[in-house]
Amino acid sequence: MSKTIVLKQRPKGIPKTSDFEFIEEEQPLPNDGEVLLKTKYVSVDPYLRGRMRDEKSYIEPFQLEKPVASAIVAEVMESKHDDFKKGDFLMGMLDWKELQVNSGKELRKLDPRLVPLSAYLGILGMTGLTAYFGLNRIGAPKKGETLLVSGAAGAVGSVVGQIGKIKGLKVIGIAGTDEKVAMLKDEFGFDSAINYNKVTDMASAIKEHAPEGIDVYYDNVGGNTLDAAMKNINRFGRVINCGAISLYNETEQPTGPRLETTLIKQSVKMQGFIVSNYEEDFLEGIQQLSQWLLEGKLKQEETVVEGFDQIPQAFIDLFNGKNKGKMLVKVY
Amino acid sequence: MSKTIVLKQRPKGIPKTSDFEFIEEEQPLPNDGEVLLKTKYVSVDPYLRGRMRDEKSYIEPFQLEKPVASAIVAEVMESKHDDFKKGDFLMGMLDWKELQVNSGKELRKLDPRLVPLSAYLGILGMTGLTAYFGLNRIGAPKKGETLLVSGAAGAVGSVVGQIGKIKGLKVIGIAGTDEKVAMLKDEFGFDSAINYNKVTDMASAIKEHAPEGIDVYYDNVGGNTLDAAMKNINRFGRVINCGAISLYNETEQPTGPRLETTLIKQSVKMQGFIVSNYEEDFLEGIQQLSQWLLEGKLKQEETVVEGFDQIPQAFIDLFNGKNKGKMLVKVY
User: Fold this and answer.
1) Model confidence pTM above 0.90
2) Tens of pLDDT along A7-19?
3) All structural domains of chain B
4) Among A200, A205, B67, B247, which is least packed by CB within 10 angstroms?
5) Closest residue of B to A258, CA-based?
6) Nearest CA of chain A to the CA of B142: how many Å?
7) Among the listed residues B178, B25, B274, B191, the one whose alpha carbon sits nearest the alpha carbon of residue A263
């Protein structure tokens, strides 16, 4: 038998475990040209919340009563595919299933000797690439500039800040606990960090840490934090709209101060993106990130939860800030 | 004697003529290295409203009891400056005075035989350049794309739409009267236009005119119109934040729907600018605009009000949509 996690109902506000359902299925069998895969690591990511809404977006919404899917590392248990053999590790967008068959068309073979397998879901996967391309292509950071990162202790934010330091910027992080603030400074080399749970006026807090103003703001959270950053943005500032986790669970259309006047007065650019926009250049990104990783310039932080049954809760915990760095579920 | 217009008090909401005061001064006399100038054409522009607030911006605020200034074409009445002689026409940022002396340092000599003098304040001046650089550098329009322009019958918008047509785009304008809508289509070659005063749901109206969605939105007005455009923005859309005239007279911080989720989902760029960001390339812009003008590909529309005393009212009328194309005051 094999377990599958399906979307039982569309979450209202912060997702609950009851929004998901576990189903037992017969063990699937691969046909010619297919592989049987056993899920090893599951990536849970804030953007999945968006796919749980029945809304047009860059990717189609999850269907009710159908499996949820995310980036997964899986082991080949049986292969009827010429390119793959038993024991290979593959990754790609796969269903939240213990066992599944796949044609392998959109899967990538991993080398477990180069880096730990989990790194392919984090620093060498979508999150690392998201940090790399968002910061470099949209932020175009220049040595000596000041970079502010929200969600700084998260999977993307922690890599963004480290790349900022590699490139010679002053880096300020925003995170939600003193422990995370300490980690940003001590482990990842941020120049300073703000605990948003201890601050009543975020705009003033940013100004204290960056009296010179913000040149590049890498935004993972949106909402009030974005507003506060915009009050400190310098002329020709760049805002990278990577995520808006503070809004993902809103049930009404969120409102806030209009930003167009600031954009004009300060000649600021705000740009949203998804990592697949840069798909053609992924190799460049992976090579650069691997090099920094091997040179010890880049560190990865992971929060690894164990057990297939923990996948929904691990996903939910993203919205409670339970993770430091990349949130993963290790299935076996 | 010579009249000067000073800022009497900072406007609250839409400016009133009582916010300005006319003062009579002795006729000034030029010293060595100076010219005596007689104001011929005065440009009134929405951005001047921002300078009437006591707020940090890209340009310092006007001082109370001091003259208001804007782009002006003036004739040299007397010259003690080697580069200029009596009868020359000069332009630059000058005070709202009938007569003034100036060192000429930041003034440019105009050729009245090439184009009418008023064109130097419009299509070959700041407004033409604002249209040209905003659309080209930020919008990066591609043939076959759909361009939406708000404030389309205004000084900048009417040029933006025409450049859009020259570049092979489908162009849709938004303006405030049926007469302006007709002008956009018949005179400027827009593919279609929307009268915002006859529309209750702007987002649906845009969708009707552009079922294929908007690739480039050139925004002169901000506020609700921007929100409606964002509901129709395509993936990889570009929003050029040129002006926000709908907000300039707000007395409270304007609020609206948060846009970061749309920016992310659709990989959209929003970018504000002021024309002087592109100062190094003004010559390129002027040459291209002049060529299009001489080839008859670009038409200019002007609303010319006569008389020095009409300057404040002409400025105020910008916020009531009284102008078609560039709003100018002809002093003599």
Assistant:
1) yes
2) 999 999 999 999 9
3) 2-122+300-330 (3.90.180.10), 135-276 (3.40.50.720)
4) A200
5) B255
6) 18
7) B274
